[in-house]
Amino acid sequence: MPHAPPWWQPEVHADRRPFLEARRRVLVALRAFLERSGFVEVETAILQRSPGNETHLHAFTTELIAPDGTADRRYLHASPEFACKKLLAAGERRIFEFARVFRNCERGAVHHPEFTMLEWYRTDEPYEAVMADCVEFLRLAAAATGIATFAFRGRSADPRAAPEHLTVVEAFARHAGIDLLATLDVQTQDRDGFARQARATGIRVAEDDTWNDIFSRVLVERIEPQLGNGRATLLSEYPRAEAALARPCTADERLAERFELFICGVELANGFGEQTDPVEQRLRLTQEMDRKERLYGERYPIDEDFIAALAHMPPAAGCALGFDRLVMLAAGASRVDQVIWTPLT
Question: What is the full DSSP assignment across 256-301?
Answer without folding.
Answer: EEEEEEEETTEEEEEEEEBP--HHHHHHHHHHHHHHHHHHHS----
